[in-house]
Structures are given as structure tokens and as C-alpha cells.
Amino acid sequence: MPQITMDSTVRELYETPVGHDVIEKVLLQLNLSEKWILNPLIGNRKIRTLSKLTGKQMGTEFWQTLITLVNSEPDVPDDRTAEKSTTAVKPAWWKEAVIYQIYPRSFCDSNGDGIGDLKGILSKLDYLQSLGIDALWLSPIYDSPNDDNGYDIRDYRKIMTEFGTMEDFDELLDGIHKRGMKLIMDLVVNHTSDEHEWFRKALNDPDSGYEDYYFFRKGKDGKEPNNWNSFFGGTAWNYYPERDLWALHLFSKKQMDLNWDNPKLRADIIDMINWWLDKGVDGFRMDVINYISKAEGLPEGNETVGKMMLFYGIEHYYYGPHLHEYLHEIRKKAFDPHNAFSVGETPGIGREMAKLITGEEREELDMVFSFDQLETPGHIRFDDYEYDLNYYRDYITDWMEHYGSNCWMSLFYNNHDNPRMVSKVRKDPSLRQEIETLLAVMQFTLKGTPFVFQGDEMGLINYDFHSISELSDVESRNRYAELLESRSEEEAFKIIRNGTRDHSRVLLPWNEKAKELPDHLRQEADPVITELYRKLIALRKAHPTLIYGDFRLLSRRKNTFVYERTGEESFVIECNLSEEPRKPVFQGKGYTLLMPKSAFGVMKPYEARIYRKLK
Ligand code: NOJ
Ligand code: CA
Question: Radius of gyration over alpha carbons of the chain, in Å?
Fold first, then answer.
């Protein structure tokens, strides 16, 4: 890969994998079209010229930061990722699977204390199997003081008391396997709780050998060692007066970042992963795994990047210098010997970087979760806006067409960190079923592995929270406190309510304790949507073309998404992406309509049709 310099053109920068993804991200953030970069007037310019033009606003340092990041990646994706690739996809169970995410705290409570638990999950295995689910991903169930609901782990080898015991876990794993399903655990190894014994030892005893498991640093003139800020508000550093040292935490004050450059730490983590895999766990979802390698010296974050991305310092750890190396090491020493599956949570990672993490020849991760589909350009989760599904069409088509046959996508709209997509698309719930049906049709007929989030299949929507006291999430509470510095309580709460992670964390309706919640925090499960999920999952399973078949875009007119999946069979899916009725583009000649039962004339609001070619 030729090195990029200030004398390279913008186009040359865009042609590098990191340059491509960073530019896309910036365009997304600023709500600018791609055409902006493809336009020769910009594309043929030298970075130096652009840097002069944007001088005051962005500063030359911004461009230097970008160039350094781009040049830190010497590799380019394998050419099987080329646009018109015809190489066959290698089959794997996890490409064929439908995976269901459980947020244990709010899933199913077996003993009436209002907290979901392992026995509760066990009691729902038949239900999950009857839906057609192949694998469960459990958000963390390890011992934790719950500052971030289990994403702050105190002991990796112990089950959280409220959730049950190790015996309950063994029984659950057995129950899952007996039903032919698999279990994917959450692996949170960018950080531990500050109550983890490694951190306690590191802090209390400088000779313990654990100090280097974390990032302890001297302050700079009595202040934080650098300007990085935390995803949950405020600085990313805690000060410990007893040692006159600061320690890094990218998330809450109780989630202390681990130092992956320390080989001893890596060996301990790999031991722990092997311990679970030896127990029979089938794979891991890896929490913010792209953050594990931090730039040497933990340099100051660039101001422009910080302002634009809202996080100072992010360019120094979201695609760090040893990321590939560490992922490869975990794979070789733990995953491969157990034939285990891995999916990385990788915020900020774009299409080309994702290829360098999931290309099968690279032996790093099987899949990643990328998040750029969750909000439309120019918006963040806390904005008050409605999601335009035309953007989803363009986003997903781009990945379908360019991700290549040696990489495989995850397909999802929801998880425990996000409000539900159905409510983002339309706040007024009167077309809820229609939108849910449309989203599910796309999720089960596009190319990739669908991840269902608990409650999707019940038709759940966002909650109308009334006050901050109803929210328990650490992110919401910290952000709210920050907003109060410049806004009224009412304004601050409105913002938090748009984006709070609590929308996806309220106790599911089937729990006894959920029945005691006030009206505005209660929803009924919708059997129509549950049946729809059952049907769509069965359809996908009955037709391997819907899994491995090629994807081809047939129409992307406004409010229209028509695509074809072809292999042994051929399917055409037509979606109306808005509430405006419109004429169908696909007439269905030579095809039979599989869904809905009948469809005449105009496409109704958010209608989705699935056709199969007659033999
Ligand atoms: C991502 C997880 O999904 C989220 O819930 C958590 O707060 C952060 N990582 C920190 O672990
Ligand atoms: Ca319980």
C-alpha cells in the first residue's frame, strides 16, 4: 500500500481501506453525500490544498492525524471482496443460524424478585426452539457490582448471584445443547470492574505485578494524563490520591481499561476464554473489541476529531496498532482449537476495516457488528427525529454489494444499547405491525446472520418514560447530569428519553413483576408478530438460497427497495419504505407470492412482499 502524504489526492486517500471508512464516517456525521468526495473537483485535490481550505475549521493537525491512522494499516482487503466476486461462500453453522440476544436481567424472572435469571432462561428454551432460534447470545451473566449491568465484571469465572449459580449455568448449557441450539457468551475484556481482584491488587500493592494490567499514569501538571473522554460522560481518567496516579476508563468510572500490550494480561484472558470454551460454550460476542489496542504513549486526542465524533482520543484506540495481532492471537490460542464462533462488537468500524477483521483468510473474527445503520446521517441516538428507511436500503445495499464472499454480515436493528428501530421509524405506533413486518422481512431475506433482540418477536416498541427516576442506565443518568449544566430538567429529560438504553431493558411482558409496572411501562406481546417471526425463520431455513444466494438490487427508487436472491431458486422481495401507498415495481410474472397471503394493486404503507420464481 503506497504511503499517503499531504501531497496525495483526496481520491488516493479514499482508496485506502481506513481512508475510505473515515471519510464515509465524516460524511455521515456531517450529513454530506458521497458525491462530494467522488466529484473530481474535490477528489483530484491534494490533501494539502484541502487542508488549507479547511484550515481554520479543522486545522492541519486533523489531516495529519488522519494520514497517520491510514498509514498504520499496511494491508488491503483480499480481492475476493471485489465487487463482482463469484467465489462461492464457504458454509458455516453460524451463517445459517438465527441468533437471539438475551439481556438476562429483563428476560425471564423465575423466582419473583423482579430480576431475570438463568432458571428463567431455561424455562423459555422450548419457546425459543419453537421460534426456530439456533443460538442464544447472553449479555454478561458474570459476577459484577452492576455499575453497567454486568458489563463491569468482578469475577470472570463466577455467575452473578441474582442470576443463579454455576450449577444453574451448567443445566442451562445442557438444556440448550439438548435442543440442538448453541450458546454464545459475552466477552467483556476491554475493561474489568474496579472491584476485580486484578485492579484491587494493582491499586493497593505496587509490587503485586498487576499495575501493568491497567493504564496507570502520572498526571500532567496536576491534571489528567490526556484529554480523552469517557463514553459515559466526563474525563476518561480516575484519580487515586493514595498513589498519586490516574487510571484510564473509557466507559464508567468503575470500568477500568485493561492493558493488552502486557503479554501476561493477554495470557490470563486467553486462559479464561479457554476455561469457558472447555465447559462447552460455543462462541463469544466480544464487547467493544476494536478498542483493545491503544496507541503507544496514549497521545492527546485531536480537537476536530473529538468535536466531530463527540469523543476525544478515539482515533488512538478504535483501530489501534496491535488490533489485528491481538485478535489473531485469541483466535489461534482459544477459538480455533475449540472450533468456536466469534462476533465482535466494533463501534466506528466501517466496511473496509471490517473486511480486514472478518476476511476468512485473515483468521481474526468471524463477524462484526457495525453500527452505521442505526441512525440516519447527521443524527445521533439522542436526537428527536424519524428514521428514513431509504437510508437503510442504501446502507445495506452497499454492504451486500461490496463486502465480498470471504466476509459475512450480521443483520440487526436492535440490541440492549438502543431504542427499538420500529419507534425510530415512526413514533406514532398506529402502523407498528406493518413496520415490524417490513423490518423482519428484510432481516430474514437479506444476506447475513439475523440477530433477533429479545422482544422483537413480541412486537415491542419504545416506552413513554415519564421521569428520570424511571431510568436506571448509567449512561442515561450521567448524560442527564451533564445536560443539566446547560438545560432545564424537562429539556434534558426529553433528550435522554429519545436515546436511553432503558427502552430495550424493561422487564419483558411475560414476567409477573412486569404486570405490576405502571401502565406506561407495560406492553403486551403481540402474537401476530411472534407468528410472523416463526414463519419467516421457517421460510429462511427451508430455502438455502435465502441464506447463501446472491443478492441483486432491482430498484432503489424513492421509498422503494426491490431485490433478488438467486441460487438454486430465485426470490424477489419488494418493500414499500414509507407510509405512502404506491404502485408496485415488481409485477410478479412467473412468480408466486409467498407473503403476504394476498396482495392486490398498490403497495400499502410499509408493505413487504416476498415472491418465489415458479419452477
Ligand atoms: C458495549 C455494550 O454493549 C454496552 O452495553 C456497554 O455499556 C459497553 N460496551 C461497555 O462495556
Ligand atoms: Ca429472579
Answer: 24
- From the CA of 505, the nearest ligand is 1
pLDDT score, position 250: 98
- pLDDT digit string (tens) for 81-103? 555 555 689 999 999 999 999 99
Burial of 262 (0-12, 13-18, 19+ CB in 10 A): middle
Q: Nearest residue CA, atom 6 of ligand 1? A: 151
Q: How many CB atoms lie within 10 A of CB 296?
A: 11
C-alpha–C-alpha distance, residues 564 and 574, integer Å: 9
pLDDT at site 106: 98
Which of 550, 83, 81 minimizes the C-alpha distance to 359?
A: 81
From 187, 288, 414, mutation site for ligand 1 pocket: most ligand atoms within 8 A of C-beta: 288
169 and 132 Cβ atoms separated by less than 8 Å: no
Query: Quick one: pLDDT at residue 428?
Result: 97
User: Count of H helices and E strands in the chain?
Assistant: 25, 20
Confidence of residue 599 (pLDDT cuts 50, 70, 90): confident
Answer whether 257 contacts ligand 1 (Cβ < 6 A).
no
Q: Considering only CA atoms, which of 349, 442, 359 is closest in space to residue 403?
A: 359
Q: Is residue 148 in contact with ligand 1, taking CB distance under 6 Å?
A: yes
Q: What are 136's strand-pairing partners?
A: 100, 183
Q: Distance between CA atoms of 89 and 448, rounded to whole angstroms? A: 11
CB atoms near residue 356 (< 10 Å): 23
Nearest Cα residue to 260 out of 289, 232, 300: 289
With a 6 A CB cut-off, is 151 part of the ligand 1 pocket?
Answer: yes
Q: What is the pLDDT of residues 371-393, one digit of tens each?
A: 999 999 999 999 999 999 999 99
Q: What whole-number distance in Å separates Cα of residue 407 and Cα of residue 360?
A: 6
80 versus 614: which is more confidently predicted?
A: 614
Which has the higher per-residue pLDDT, 469 or 60?
469
Is pLDDT of 80 > 90?
no
Q: Residue 470 C-alpha to ligand 1 middle, in angstroms?
A: 20
| Across 466-474, average pLDDT | 97
Closest CA to 456 of 174, 203, 98: 98
E strand residue ranges, 405-467 = 410-411, 449-453
| Residue corresponding to grid cell 462530494 | 36
Name residue, grid cell 488516493.
12
